[in-house]
Amino acid sequence: MRKYLASSLVMAGLSASSIALAEASTTGNESWVGLAKLGAAIAIGLGTFGAATGQGRASSAAMEGIARNPTSRGDVFVPLIIALAFMEFQALLSFIVALMLVG
Predict the structure, then answer these.
(1) Where are the alpha helices (DSSP H) in the chain?
(2) pTM greater than 0.85 (yes/no)
């Protein structure tokens, strides 16, 4: 678990720093633009990491519960879909925050 969090943070940082360096080298903008892009990359990275982790755990628990008691499929399926939709909404909100930081 920690390995995945560390790798997602490193990837977000690398992508943000490359974007910020490319922006700084091509234009003479203020330094806050690069920091905003760094913040946007971190927001997207953490938001999608949290959503993907939550979706994986929820799906795993639902499948395990259905495997133990197949008659509970109807009772588990609808709350699972609703929970997955809320988790996906979290990832979309992080994307919107990132767009607001960059824009």
Answers:
(1) 2-26, 31-68, 73-102
(2) no
Rg of the Cα atoms in the chain: 18
Superfamily, domain 2-102: F1F0 ATP synthase subunit C (1.20.20.10)
- Residue 64 buriedness (CB in 10 A; 0-12 / 13-18 / 19+): exposed
Could you give the CA distance from residue 32 to residue 29 in angstroms, rounded to a whole number?
8
Q: Give residue 48's pLDDT band: very low, low, confident or very high (50, 70, 90).
A: confident
Give the alpha-carbon dihedral of 94, 4, 65, 83, to 10 degrees: 0
Spell out the domain ranges in the chain: 2-102
Mean pLDDT for 6-28 is 56
Q: Are 55 and 87 in contact (CB under 8 A)?
A: yes
| Model pLDDT, residue 10 | 57
The residue whose two tokens read 């920690």 is 2
